[in-house]
Amino acid sequence: MMDTEITQLLVRARNGEPERLGEVFQALYPELMRMARSRLRGCNATMTPTVLVHELFLRVTSSDSLSLVDRRHFFAAAAQALRWIMVEDARRSLSQKRGGGAVHVELDEELSPAAPTGAADTGVLALHEGLDALEELSPQRRQVVELRYFAGLEFKEVAELLGISERTAQREWERARAFLLAMLEEGGDG
Fold this sequence. Notes:
Blueprint: H1 3-14, H2 20-40, H3 49-62, H4 71-95, E1 106-107, E2 113-114, H5 120-137, H6 139-150, H7 155-162, H8 166-189
Antiparallel strand pairs: 1-2
Helix pairs in contact: 1-2, 2-3, 3-4, 4-5, 4-6, 5-6, 5-8, 6-8, 7-8
């Protein structure tokens, strides 16, 4: 389905036809599954890509205040929702476990938490806390990370969505990544 068709469906959904969001999800389902698979790689087995995408669908379609403009805006909202779904799942999983301690979490080039067995939930929560701290420092950098990491957007798409240059998006990514790595290393030591 073309971007213009997605935009038209989103406009219709905003204008009183919420069932059109289902059509958007159906059209974008393969991309959403790809996003979910890449985010869950190495994480716990309680959340599968299918469960993650279906939870995303339930949240987006049940939200009265969500006003999506176009395909990119849809993926930006999806990235933020995926983050919250994964955080809630990690919190739920960790609240059911006893014991344990601080786990050192490292980020690879793509900001993917490197989690030893059983530590994936801790990595998700550490990244979430890092993004909250980053929000206080620079909301734009937090947005760049969410769009790159959770939505899988390219720098060009991130730049267009945020109204900045592609080079600025790349710089903000590098600065955010350095901040998050430093924060996670500090948290892993103590």
